[in-house]
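This part of the workshop introduces the protein records we will be handling. A record pairs a protein's sequence with a compact description of its fold. Comparing a sequence with its tokens is the quickest way to learn the format. The record below serves as our worked example for the rest of this section:
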Amino acid sequence: MDAAVRAARAAYDGWSRTAPRERAAVLDRVADLLAEHTPDLVPLVQAETGATLRVTSSLQVPPAIDRFRRYARGALEPDTVPLAPLPMAATPLAPGGLIGAAAVRRPLGVVACITSYNFPLTNLAGKVAPALAMGNTVVAKPAPQDPLCCLELGPLLKEAGLPDGAFNVVTGSRAAAGEALVAHPGVDMVSFTGSTAVGKKIAESAGRSMKRTLMELGGKGAAIVLGDADERAIASAVGAVGSTFSFHSGQICTAPTRVLVHRSLYEKVIAALTHYAESLKIGDPVDNSTIVGPLISAAQRDRVEAYVSGARDQGARIVVGGERPAHKPGFYVAPTLIADADPAMTVAREELFGPVVVALPFDDEDEAVRIADATPYGLYDYVFSADPGRAWTLAARLRSGNVGINTAQRHPETPFGGFKESGVGRDGGSFGLHAYSELQSLVWVS
């Protein structure tokens, strides 16, 4: 650990002083190399994560390429904002006159990038690319469940022309490895994606030396289906909520794992989601026809099953799923829809990270907002309505860092992050450059 941080520190002075066009060229070349190595990376990522072939081919490797390409352009974005000159009166410190100023973004130094297991390469690229674009150096620590694809990134960065020491990878399955990296005095910033529980420990450790932090933590997304939702809006809602079943088996922090439905449409949406869940093929992730693959580990499968069992014991209705798929060796959980839960139930408040959706009815918008906000999280919510203006107005009331209106689609240039215990800071697009930089003010006599 110490050697990796020292290497990053030694490389910082040189890399931070390279011209933006040189950094851009390196990142562009990394994107090219990732594209060339995609045929090898896809099966590796799939073997490590258990993601289906569809998910791996479209959302595990290609977004990593896109992120390096995006921040190759980002390295060329202006880093200086001129401020209007102002006439200033004399003070005991200096004579008066017309004073000019500018705000300049500067690199932070050594960035520790600690990633999650669900999208190991994509998540790492989303941290490393903007960090390097701004002139920082990196020590990466991938999740212990799937480090191999992250280790493969190192040689590609070197081949692309990144100086020795500017990117380093450390691994370890024990908490002590991450703790040592976060606490190291040579680290200037910690960028973490993972659970809120671990994020709190990182914040506590980083706070002792006032390290900068960027943390994308847990979520308990609510999809709110308003009473005016027409067939199109309902179909959009079912598709979005259904992605919790079908997209990487619900192992995604932005998933709408709760569906809040106006009572007049509640049973209709329940029926549509039931049909959706029952139509999904569960199977071997290397089979291109498989939609639902396994979870990352036996421990995670057992954790999700415990939540479902607890909901059943508390009186919730298991509409579909709730049991392991028959004759499926591996860490599978069947797509599960839980209805008639109380908002105070554990299953309705805590992040599960599995293919489980909780349905809750509401009678008016005030109640919908109360239920949506009745968790410690605030990462991503969704509103579905026949009236986009009404949905927009409701979105403003939600304590959530992101709100999708009649869609679960993402926009890559928006600031991404959460309210409450869903994280600290924002990345994405140009906001990612801001996240991995520090502002310096320059003041002079015009």
Observations:
- The CA atoms of residues 222 and 414 lie 20 Å apart.
- The domain at 2-217+422-445 is CATH 3.40.605.10 (Aldehyde Dehydrogenase; Chain A, domain 1).
